[in-house]
């Protein structure tokens, strides 16, 4: 009888198999069956560790992001000697730089623009969307931390929730990524800093 693989080792084995599939093809569909086959385990064993495909994808993306340093260190965020808006802008610049790094950014934009139709509802577990969920959670955390710092003991009424603010900032950064990648972008890059400042100021602003 083959000895059972301990859960922590099995988890790492599954994540390594899925990461290898994405390294070979960034648009690969990480189905439970395909990942289990790559890891040389049964689908039942995989589902014991990751009951749903979405849990599997989120874990894979989080592991890759941590490995590549995509989750930026928050030391700058806690530097209270600088204005909160400036610190949020610095974090967003890091997100923008990460999005533009590597040779794949332009190809990903081309693929998105060439897509004949939007993804179907059952694509909710796609790696791209999992990475987006991770980024939104991180940005919402930045907003919450900075708001708490500036509010003190007060309970101010902000113009949006941290989650709404994160979605807004993510949309702004996505637009800037497109601006930097499409032809003629040099003339528009000068507006990057002012755009980030307007967006960061808006999400940290209290309701009038």
Automatic annotation (TrEMBL):
> Which intervals hold domain HTH tetR-type?
8-68
- The residues that make up the annotated DNA-binding region are 31-50
User: One MF term in GO for this entry?
Assistant: transcription cis-regulatory region binding
The record's section on InterPro entries has: Homeodomain-like_sf, HTH-type_TetR-like_transc_reg, HTH_TetR
Bilayer-spanning residue ranges: none
Keyword terms of this UniProt record: DNA-binding, Transcription, Transcription regulation
What name has this protein been given in UniProt?
TetR family transcriptional regulator
Q: Taxonomic lineage per UniProt?
A: Bacteria, Bacillati, Actinomycetota, Actinomycetes, Micrococcales
């Amino acid at each position: 009888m083959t000895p059972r693989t301990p859960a922590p080792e099995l988890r790492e084995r599954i994540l390594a198999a899925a990461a290898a599939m994405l390294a070979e093809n960034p648009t690969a569909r990480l189905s439970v069956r395909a990942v289990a086959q790559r890891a040389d385990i049964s689908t039942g064993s995989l589902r014991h560790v990751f009951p749903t495909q979405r849990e599997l994808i989120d874990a894979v993306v989080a592991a890759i992001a941590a490995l590549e340093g995509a989750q930026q260190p928050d030391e700058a965020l806690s530097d209270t000697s600088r204005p909160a808006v400036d610190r949020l802008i610095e974090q967003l610049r890091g997100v923008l730089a990460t999005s533009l790094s590597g040779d794949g950014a332009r190809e990903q934009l081309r693929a998105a623009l060439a897509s004949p139709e939007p993804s179907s509802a059952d694509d909710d577990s796609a790696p791209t969307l999992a990475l987006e969920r991770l980024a939104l959670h991180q940005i919402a955390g930045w907003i919450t931390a900075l708001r708490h710092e500036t509010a003190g003991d007060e309970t101010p009424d902000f113009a949006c929730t941290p989650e709404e603010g994160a979605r807004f900032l993510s949309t702004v950064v996505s637009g800037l990524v497109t601006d930097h990648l499409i032809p003629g972008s040099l003339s528009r890059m000068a507006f990057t800093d002012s755009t980030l400042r307007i967006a960061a100021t808006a999400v940290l602003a209290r309701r009038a």
